[in-house]
Amino acid sequence: MTTETNTVELATELTIAWLGNPNTRTSADDVPAFLQSMYAAVEKLGGTTVETPTEDAAVEYTPAVTVRKSLASKDHIISMIDGKPYRTLRRHLTGHGLTPEEYRARYNLKADYPIVAESYSEARRAMAKTIGLGRKPGQKVEGAEKPAPKAKRGGKAALDAAKETLGTAE
């Protein structure tokens, strides 16, 4: 009985220390749950097993829309969580504590189910190509203009270059 008393006391002391931390913000409703989890952790570390209620029944998630409807538009993807359109689901899923893989698993989607809308992806691709991403070193960007030569700093040559650029000649 002394080991159980020590475990309870240790879990209580750890909980009090946690609540005494000025950076900890919690409500009074969360304290019993935290105390129980602290007790279970101390018991687990002590080598004895604690019977905690496990949730055997898997939660069934019903999608807000069908897969076909979620991909109906090229401009957005409709979320199966809340039924709202998004150009990219990544931030939305992170807000719900999901990764794209977990999202696909939750709603039984194929591994190639897109997370980014098609038109948004194409726009990003075009922008990346115009700034030269994805090209090999030394390869020129298609459709890009040759940059103007840089003027030398100071002196008569810089003044002549500036006048030539502005189109004012003496």
Main sheet properties? 2 strands, antiparallel
Order of helices and strands: HHHEEHHHH
Proportion of strand residues: under 5%
Major β-sheet strand ordering: 1-2
Number of strands: 2
Mean pLDDT: 82
Shape: flat
Cα Rg: 31 Å
The unreliable regions are none
- Give the CA-CA distance, first to last residue: 103 Å
Structural class assignment: mainly alpha
The DSSP helix count reads 7
Helix content: 40-55%
Family: Belongs to the ros/MucR family.
Protein name: MucR family transcriptional regulator
InterPro entries: ROS/MUCR_sf, ROS_MUCR
Pfam family, one: ROS_MUCR
Structural notes for this entry:
This protein is 46% helix and 2% strand. The protein has 170 residues and is an all-alpha fold. A two-stranded antiparallel sheet has the order 1-2. It is flat and about 85 Å long. The termini are far apart. The model has no long low-confidence stretch (mean pLDDT 82).
In brief, what are we looking at here?
By secondary structure, the chain is mostly helical. The protein has helices at residues 2-20, 30-46, 67-70, 90-95, 100-106, 118-130, 155-166, and strands at residues 77-78, 85-86.
